[in-house]
Amino acid sequence: MADETEKRGFFSRLFGRKGEAPAEEPREETARAVDEQRESEREEERAEEAPPAASTVTEPSPDAAAHVPGELAGADLQPIEPAGEAAREAAVAEELARQPGPAGAPAPEQRPLSPIEREDVAREAAPEPEPEPEPEPAPPAAVAPAPKVSWWKRLTQGLARTSSSMGGAITSLFTKRKLDATTLEDLEDILIQADLGVPAATRITEAVAKGRYDKEIPPDDVKRVLAAEVERSLAPVAHPLSIDRGRKPFVLLMVGVNGAGKTTTIGKLAAKFRAQKLSVTMAAGDTFRAAAIEQLKVWGERTGSTVISREQGADAAGLAFDALTQARRDGTDVLLVDTAGRLQNKAGLMSELEKIVRVMKKVDDTAPHAVLLVLDATVGQNALSQVELFQKAAGVTGIVMTKLDGTARGGILVALAERFGLPVHFIGVGEGVDDLEPFAARDFARAIAGLEEA
Ligand SMILES: Nc1nc2c(ncn2[C@@H]2O[C@H](COP(=O)(O)OP(=O)(O)OP(=O)(O)O)[C@@H](O)[C@H]2O)c(=O)[nH]1
Question: Labelling 257: which of 7, 19, 181, 365 has CA 20 to 30 A away?
């Protein structure tokens, strides 16, 4: 792998940049600084918003915090707003992002903002969420019959923000311009901004440069190179989720921070399994939030699945034990176990997940058979620290990435693939039941590059 700290100036050194101004900040540091800035803003928001812990949830032992591995100390459990807030915020952000000028969010700069910058501005300008009572369960609109739209269409529509941001920038960068060191560094910036990560951005830029230096290169050629490189990174992690039908039940433990889309994803997966004629039981293990229990019951009714639940605040591990015992007795094909994404702190979350796993093993020592981490694409680079956290807590076996439709930084999947190599089973590009599909590297790569279906 290229030495990232020396990456800045690579193309200049290689080709000699005209009028080079070496006083610029190294790009790696710029990217890190942007991330740190975002992190510290989120930290501040959390400090202001952190709601008091619900008294119904088991208090973690005082020394539990001491067991949080040091490397997780900085891991962020964003978002922690009540469910629904994220969607509302995204809507506000979307609206703000659409407003072109001073009538909208106060523009921090006079030059026009890129879609990614507008996303940042909108996020910062979004009003503080007001404390609200427990939100209503998400309406089951997702299951309402919708006109059949092909997955490619859904995918390209869902990834439109990423593809138009990257594609638009690439088109304007490469139209009628010869490829030189400045162009290449600008291309690298575009890719870093889309959250592909520095190693991938450097590799793709090198691939574009190969044999084309000092020549005009059509933007579509750049997009084709981009798609090919993204596919190369993602193909090794694109694994379908395979259900071992010999296990009854096959236990899927769903983990992730609150609001990432776990409960919705459970509903969407249940619909898929039911369509394959598999029987499904859901355990409403997010006992932290009453609305999550209700939400799961709605999905249970809609998909013809059994839902096992207890009252809000009940012991989630005990519930998982009961659910597995019952699903075993009933000979159920698949058991989907929901979990809370927000407890008082990271130590509380980790010890609860560990307990759920431990307790389920008392019923079936091979359970859980898959641990799916649901990641919200809109959290950007923070997804990386979430993977580390949940890997420690529950031994993640695969990823489901949701809300790719809500960000211009869909490149985060590439950064995740290169860093962890964990299987990516599904991606979500909308709230509808058909907006979750098995992950296919080529389709994704072509869609974010703004190319036609292969
Ligand atoms: N736009 C979009 N919204 C999604 C997607 N997946 C889930 N959502 C929405 O995200 C919101 C949060 O989803 P939930 O399923 O409640 O999240 P959760 O992880 O279970 O949250 P907690 O129960 O609080 O832990 C809901 O409004 C979902 O409809 C997606 O792929 N795209």
Answer: 365
Nearest CA to ligand 1 atom 22: 258
- pLDDT-derived band at 147, boundaries 50, 70, 90: low
Write the CA distances from 132 to 37, 83, 129, 295, 296, integer angstroms.
28, 11, 8, 18, 21
Distance 135 CA to ligand 1 centre (A): 13
Domain contains 111: yes
- pLDDT > 60? residue 431: yes
Least confident among 89-93, 115-119, 208-212, 270-274: 89-93
CA 206 from chain centre, in angstroms, equals 27
Per mean pLDDT, which range of 154-163, 191-200, 343-352 is the poorest? Answer: 343-352
Distances, alpha carbon 244 to alpha carbons 21, 368, 369, in Å:
58, 12, 9
Query: Which of 132, 164, 198 is the endpoint of a domain?
Result: 132
In this predicted model, what pLDDT tens digit does every residue of 179-229 receive, in sequence order? 899 999 999 999 999 999 999 999 999 999 998 888 888 999 999 999 999
SS3 state of residue 244:
coil
The CATH number of the domain holding residue 347 is: 3.40.50.300
58 in any annotated domain: no
Which atom of ligand 1 approaches the CA of 295 most closely?
Answer: 16
ipTM: 0.91
Question: Probe ligand 1: pick from 89, 134, 264, max atoms within 8 Å of CB?
Answer: 264
| Binding-site residues, ligand 1, Cβ < 6 A | 83, 87, 138, 256, 258-264, 286, 289, 292, 340-341, 402-403, 405-406, 428-431, 435
263 annotated as belonging to a binding site for a ligand: yes
Give how many domains the chain has, as a whole number.
2
The average confidence (pLDDT) of the chain is 76
Is this model's pTM higher than 0.80 or not? no
Is 424 within the bounds of a domain?
Answer: yes
For the CA atoms of 18, 23, 29, 30, the dihedral, rounded to the nearest 10 degrees, stands at -70
Tokens at residue 17, please?
């940049």
Q: How far is CA 227 from the centre of its chain?
A: 20
| Tokens coding 435 | 């907006």
387 within some domain: yes
Q: Alpha-carbon distance 450 to 439, whole Å?
A: 17
Per-residue pLDDT band for 58 (boundaries 50, 70, 90) equals very low
For residue 260, give its domain range.
250-439
Evaluate the CA torsion angle 398, 339, 438, 419 in order and state its sign.
negative
